[in-house]
Design a protein that fits this description.
The complex is a heterodimer of chains A (233) and B (231).
Chain A: H1 7-11, H2 13-49, H3 53-67, H4 71-85, H5 88-96, H6 99-125, H7 129-137, H8 142-172, H9 184-195, H10 198-227
Chain B: H1 3-8, H2 10-15, H3 25-52, H4 56-70, H5 74-89, H6 95-121, H7 124-132, H8 137-167, H9 179-190, H10 194-224
Helix pairs in contact in B: 3-4, 3-6, 3-8, 3-9, 4-6, 5-6, 6-8, 7-8, 8-10, 9-10
Classes of the chains: A mainly alpha (233), B mainly alpha (231).
């Protein structure tokens, strides 16, 4: 192999700053999309559990459609196609902002919220029905039963899968490089094409992704060990 | 709305320029996914069994593989195989093959976890009874545990296949001829109908994935009836 490693190239100076900027942007887009996806996902999950049939069908088709189509296609759809169905003034406003970032964030939010809604729903469903019946029998009304009995338990069950969905979001955020958001993978590509030292750049980028994922999944494992075994039915 | 553009290019979206040129479109996507899941099954089975083995070294190797791959974005892995394989091995794989390798290695890690979970989900008495009947550990695995566990894993494999089918769209980024690339080509040529084109291919992906998901849900319910249970 005739490849000269030059680690100082990506660990110092301009190229290191590119990679760090990319990492910060990755965290930023994942953070914003994650927060929005939690909100949207909760809404969709509540709609799914509601007794109003049209809301339930809407929520069902939302989760089914967005879970079963590739994220990349969704990104392209929002980025290239938003013009066709968003009102003109919204598009004008978006174009004046950072449009790549906005389209990427929307795509990531919608995609992740479908998965988050499913996790929330299955978390609530996993609480045995007699919990609800028992709390109703002790005189709580429907909302109180959810507020004080069902949700606190469901929440504890749901936290680990929710966090792993957020980690998926972090990894999926690498796809927005295709529409030119300058996040970590994009910057690694940039360093590669400027210096031909792709190996070093991609190693650094991979290690940064791994550092976040492994730290968080280690914390989830600890959490599971300490809290989840207390739940037995 | 210009749905006629989608209609006129439908054959290109479905099988590319096939009889006269290379296979493309959704036919190529499905081919990538099928070959990918086939490779990933054997790789994942190997690593999943290593994860369950009694040798600490084998367990550690399998754990590192699973954790590292699952913590890395698939796109990163595709770049590793496509751009950096040549750097290390001095041998340049074509786009299709290097994307396929990335899919196999990536999905293999998830299959390994499915295998591990599937074997662990069987009641411990199965292994004890098989050992008690005089089988060695490997024989017990081969003749008693795996035939039951693998059958129970089928729904999870189908789900993994569904997410692999969606992930094949990433092969577009290094230029493999598949559905997403066909769509961007049509979009670049026609320019006026991006929303229609991307919606159309989203529906194509959706049809495949949704049918398979519905199938795996039914199978899950069906299989649940015949599972060996602990007391």
């Amino acid at each position: 192999m005739g490849y000269q490693f030059n680690w100082s190239l990506v660990l110092t100076g301009e190229y290191r700053d590119w990679l760090l900027d990319g990492f910060v942007l990755t965290l930023k887009i994942s953070g914003i999309a994650g927060a929005c996806a939690l909100a949207l996902g909760t809404l969709v999950a509540i709609m799914r559990l509601s007794r109003v049939k049209p809301l339930m069908w809407l929520s069902l088709s939302f989760t089914e459609f967005f879970r079963n189509t590739p994220l990349l296609v969704q990104i392209f759809f929002w980025y290239f196609g938003s013009e066709a169905f968003l009102p003109t003034y919204v598009n004008q406003w978006l174009y004046r902002q950072d449009f790549e970032f906005a389209a990427g964030t929307i795509a990531l939010t919608v995609y992740s919220s479908a998965f988050i809604a499913e996790e929330l729903r299955s978390g609530i469903f996993s609480i045995p029905k007699n919990q609800l019946e028992a709390s109703r029998a002790t005189g709580l009304n429907f909302l109180q039963a959810y507020r004080y009995v069902i949700l606190p338990q469901a929440f504890r069950i749901v936290i680990p899968p929710l966090i792993s969905q957020l980690l998926n979001l972090l990894k999926n955020s690498s796809l927005v490089m295709t529409i030119g958001v300058m996040e970590l993978t994009y910057q690694a590509r940039q360093v590669e094409s400027f210096t031909f030292h792709g190996f070093e750049a991609f190693t650094v980028a991979t290690l940064l992704y791994l550092a976040v994922s492994l730290t968080v999944s280690f914390i989830i494992t600890m959490y599971n060990k300490h809290f989840l075994h207390q739940l037995r039915y | 709305m210009r749905w006629d553009i989608v209609y006129n290019n439908l054959d290109y979206l479905l099988w590319g320029s096939f009889p006269d040129g290379p296979l493309g479109g959704i036919a190529a996507s499905i081919m990538l996914a099928v070959m990918g899941i086939f490779g990933a099954f054997w790789l994942g089975l190997g690593f999943g069994l290593m994860r369950l083995s009694q040798s600490r070294i084998l367990r550690a190797v399998a754990m590192v593989y699973v954790e590292v791959i699952r913590g890395t974005p698939l796109l990163m892995l595709i770049f590793w195989f496509y751009f950096l394989g040549p750097v290390i091995f001095n041998y340049h794989l074509p786009e299709f093959e290097s994307a396929l390798m990335a899919f196999i290695v990536f999905t293999g890690a998830f299959v390994a976890e499915i295998v591990r979970a599937g074997v662990n989900a069987l009641p411990g008495g199965q292994m004890e009874a098989a050992r008690g009947a005089g089988l060695t550990r490997i024989q017990a695995m081969r003749y008693v545990i795996l035939p039951q566990a693998l059958r129970n894993m089928i729904p999870s494999f189908v789900n993994q296949f569904v997410s692999l089918t969606k992930d094949t769209s990433l092969a577009y980024i290094i230029g493999v001829n598949e559905l997403t690339k066909a769509a961007t080509q049509i979009n670049n040529r026609e320019v006026v109908a991006p929303a229609e084109i991307f919606l159309a291919i989203a529906v194509l992906y959706f049809l495949i994935c949704w049918v398979l998901t519905a199938f795996s849900r039914r199978m899950e319910r069906h299989l649940a009836r015949y599972q060996a249970r602990g007391r």
